[in-house]
Amino acid sequence: MSNTKFQTPNQQIDIPFLYALLPVLVMVIAMAVSIIKFEASPHVPLIIGAITATLVAMKFGYRWDTIEQGIYRGIRMALPAIVIIIMIGLTIGAWLGGGIVATMIYYGLKLISPSLFLFTICIICGVVTLSIGSSWSTMGTIGVAAIGIGLSIGIPTPMVAGAVISGAYFGDKMSPLSDTTNLASGITGTDLFEHIKHMLITTLPAYLIALGFIYI
Fold first, then answer.
1. Cβ 49 vs Cβ 27: under 8 Å
2. Which residues contact 120 (CB under 8 A, 6 or more apart)?
3. Do 10 and 61 meet the contact criterion of CB atoms below 8 Å apart?
4. What confidence score (pLDDT) does residue 11 get?
5. Which residue in 35, 37, 164, 166 could disulfide with 143, CB within 3.0 to 4.6 Å?
6. How many CB atoms lie within 10 A of CB 163?
């Protein structure tokens, strides 16, 4: 049976593959029951999965301080993304409260041609997200304004949402400022721009196909 190997400060411990897989299975099952049956949030199942992983690690000889260091390391890796999400919420609230979204809707109705609205919005969302590195910020600000403009000129909301998401996700994947792009390259130990270059192979054709369908 193949083993999953871990390194502790004093020794190398082998954990059988099935035991290493157990926390994931427990978390998935708990999450499915929580969301589907009880319609609850996934936070408790995530904690259950973490507890299961801790128990498995301790069963095979890991000390608590080693496990604790791993938890801290994971938190440090995720913290930049969490801060960005918090800032996104603040930005959306400020834009809505300050009338910026309403202003964008007003001038958007005057400047954007209805026949090219979806095509234009998709490109704008892509450029903006590429510049700021956050698809959520783009969707929560420009996306909200685009929905308002689309309703005003009679374009179905799902079509506007599709154009916004297509542009925002393309920009998020290609932006060197994106939290997910930086997190992925950091975890895998690859160069950031090398990572972006390889993602371009699949992301750019998908974006161009989306633009083609939107234009048609």
1. yes
2. 112, 113
3. no
4. 63
5. 164
6. 28
DSSP string over the chain: --EEEEE-SS-EEEEEHHHHHHHHHHHHHHHHIIIIIS---SHHHHHHHHHHHHHHHHHTT--HHHHHHHHHHHHHHHHHHHHHHHHHHHHHHHHHHTTHHHHHHHHHHHHS-GGGHHHHHHHHHHHHHHHH--HHHHHHHHHHHHHHHHHHTT--HHHHHHHHHHHHHHHHHH-TT-HHHHHHHHHHT--HHHHHHHHHHHHHHHHHHHHHHHH-
- Residues 4, 17: contact at Cβ < 8 Å? yes
Model pLDDT for residues 168-214, shown as the tens digit of each residue: 999 999 988 787 887 787 777 788 889 899 999 999 999 999 888 88
Residues in the chain, pLDDT under 50: 1-2, 8
Closest CA to 125 of 170, 156, 83: 170
Tokens of 162: 């599709």
Dist. CA 139–CA 165, nearest whole Å: 7
The domain locations on the chain are 3-62, 78-215
Q: With both helix axes pointing from N to C terminus, report the angle between 43-59 and 17-32 in degrees, rounded to the nearest 10.
A: 160
| Length, in residues, of the chain | 216
In terms of Cβ atoms closer than 10 Å to its own Cβ (0-12, 13-18, 19+), residue 57 is buried
Neighbours of 108 (CB within 10 A): 21
Is the sign of the CA dihedral 7, 10, 15, 20 positive or negative? negative
Cα 216 to Cα 204: distance, rounded to the nearest angstrom: 18
